[in-house]
Amino acid sequence: MKTQDSLPHTETDNRLSELTLLYQLSNTMLSTIRLNKLAHLILTAVTTPSSNLFERAILFLRNEKTNVLQGMLAVTRQSSEGLRIVGGHDALGSRWDISDEIISLQRSDDFCLKVRLTRIEIDRGCPLVYQVISERALCQSDEVQCQRCQACSFIRPLCGGSFAAAPLVARETAIGMIVVDNPDSGRQISSNNLHFLQLFANQAGMAIENSMLYNRLEEAHLNLSEARERLSHGERLAAIGEMAASLAHELKNPLITIGGFAGRLLKSLPVDAREHRYADTIVSEVGRLEKMLSEILNFSRKPTICFSNCNLEDIVRECLASCTTAFEDHNIKVSFSSDDQPLIVSGDAHQLKQVFLNLVLNSCDAMPEGGKLILTLERTHLDRKSVIVTIEDTGGGIPKEMQSQIFNPFFTTKHHGTGLGLSIANRIIINHFGSIETHNTEQGAVFTIILPLLE
Ligand code: ADP
């Protein structure tokens, strides 16, 4: 009697089993669009005991920008249990599925972790990589004497014995490679299995490419939605700004008149008279209102940036120097650290200083009883060379329910606040092609600014 896992005995059985697997792969590809799940399904299908093909499979994908093969996933015989066959009444109509639990088990497997840390430079001179990626040819380890090859330092630590590698081809380009071997039994890879690997890799390549295209499409869609949201936010801001500007303009002249007369009154009244105190209050309150109006006019004015090469460290140091009195008044200890190399950005030094001033003074307001302010400038390489500025305080942080509002104009929790500091800072940073975000630590708030670096 034949059990489900027993080997097919005849050539016809073999062919039938291969065709069924390939058919199930097509069905699976048509119903799996997520790259992550697809990769797990593909590798699990060729290593699962019931397919009796390979004992281990490794997936590398090519990073086109860096021309490096990145280890993405590895599935071993031990971690390949758990492939489910779903749908359809017979083998041909069915497809594979895998649970999230098995996926995370496979991800945390030691061998898989080792593979995920592996990077192979395609142009490094390894004959195997050249054959698979550049010539898009299936390749066996013996053919290129991989074990003695000096150029590659990846395959020997990963695969001790004989193995085979197949290119994943899509639109006539190799987008990655699948490596298979039999480390448990030490069995050589048969020519039948090699033939299957070739067919299988062709289909897998197309499926992975489709999935990556879908991911890119989804990402582009998300970016588009965000851009639309920013645009409508910008339109709302412009409308608020226009209204605020005309109001501020109307208020400015009478306020100057009131301030002027109150000042004259103040001078003419005896210092110990009650009226002197009243006039004094009018003068100081008018002063506060004038400051507020000039902030509103600043906010609503069309920003013009005078771009020049600025040293960010110098700008931050200047800002800290301007705040010395505030630090002393609030009993705030300041620590500042910067990169060893100069951090040069293209921007408007005056406006950038304004950003740091707004953030630092907010931190001072948040720590009326004293505290610690930590500023750091750190070089980083995201999509491009950038600098990350962090401003961290110990003022208790920003309540969660307020975090989405603090960058909106006129949002303030302060008695004398205008609610414009952060929205001005945000606009300046966006105009400098950067971003600004905030989060809380246990002790306070952290503002993180990312700006593109010139060098
Ligand atoms: P304003 O300082 O005039 O209130 P801002 O736009 O600068 O306007 O700040 C908006 C609000 O964000 C503040 O009123 C405050 O509630 C909150 N906020 C800003 N920075 C901090 C900080 N470092 N810690 C706690 N809250 C902060």
For the record, what is the CATH homologous superfamily label of the largest domain? GAF domain
CATH topology (fold) name of the largest domain: Beta-Lactamase
Q: Give me the secondary-structure category.
A: alpha+beta
| Number of helices, where a helix is a run of at least 4 consecutive DSSP H or I residues | 12
Helix content: 40-55%
What is the CATH architecture annotation of the largest domain? 2-Layer Sandwich
One letter per element, helices H and strands E, the order comes to: HHEEEEHHEHEHEEHHEHHEEHEEHEE
Largest sheet: 6 strands, antiparallel
Question: Kindly, what is the distance between the CA atoms of the first and last residues, rounded to a whole number of angstroms?
Answer: 72 Å
Number of domains: 3
Small molecules bound: adenosine-5'-diphosphate
Task: Kindly describe this structure.
It is a single chain. The chain has about 450 residues and is of the alpha+beta class. The protein has three domains: about 10-215, 2-Layer Sandwich (Beta-Lactamase); about 220-300, Helix Hairpins (Orthogonal Bundle), CATH 1.10.287; about 310-450, Histidine kinase-like ATPase, C-terminal domain (Heat Shock Protein 90, 2-Layer Sandwich), CATH 3.30.565.10. About 45% of the residues lie in helices and about 20% in strands. The protein is built from twelve helices and 15 strands. It has helices at about 10-30, 35-45, 100-105, 110-115, 125-135, 155-160, 190-270, 275-300, 310-320, 325-330, 350-365, 420-430, and strands at about 55-65, 70-75, 85, 95, 120, 140, 165-170, 175-180, 310, 330-335, 345, 370-380, 385-395, 435-440, 445-450. It has a six-stranded antiparallel β-sheet with strand order 5-2-1-8-7-6, with helices on both faces. Strands 10-12-13-15-14 form a five-stranded mixed β-sheet. It has a two-stranded antiparallel sheet with strand order 3-4. The longest helix is centred in the middle third of the chain and has 78 residues, at about 190-270. The radius of gyration is 33 Å and the shape is elongated. The termini are far apart. Adenosine-5'-diphosphate binds near residues 395, 411, 412 and 423.
